Structure prediction request, 198 residues.
Amino acid sequence: MKNRLRVLRAERDWSQADLAQRLEVSRQSVNAIETGKFDPSLPLAFKLARLFETTIEAIFSDEN
Amino acid sequence: MFCSIKSPTERRYVIRMWVSAGLCVLFSVVAALVFRFYHPHGVFSYLAAVLPALPIIGALVYTGVYLAEEKDEFQRNLLVQSLLGGTGGILAVTTTWSYLEDFAHAPHLDLVWVYPLFWLFAGISYGFVRARYR
Prediction:
């Protein structure tokens, strides 16, 4: 799944570790999600959306 | 298996696993001494023999507890995939070895090796799974 996490992070000048700390997950988790290798669960996607004050659809989009 | 501890849940899990491993060694020595010097019979022999297996069962329970407690779904996913790899690996080896024993008269594989081999395969599997997400 494609996502805009890297962009959203850059806009706030957050490192992967910063985002991981805010999400209460490991930095490896953030990296795996950001690179599209791991799809987050719905609760984690909602958490991301709340953190970036946007919608899930604004962060994630399917490959097509 | 875990090179760096990432969360309190993981730290707790690793400590519990080390304690289980220590108890397993201790109970193995105790059981060996009991059989050597006291020669227990009947129910007592079963109780003494099963002693080293108790920490192993505990470690398996702790693994389930870790999976229930770990809030990081990615880390949980890594462990689940590794455990599946370990399960598949040990099933493949023991099944293959049993045919080798039956037909080719290969040396007998003591069942006590199943548990450490399971974790060996789980560890190898963890390496492959982790590499996939790098």
Notes: Chain A has one domain: 2-57. Residues 15 and 46 of chain A are 20 Å apart (CA to CA). Residues 2-57 of chain A form a domain with the 434 Repressor (Amino-terminal Domain) fold (CATH 1.10.260.40).
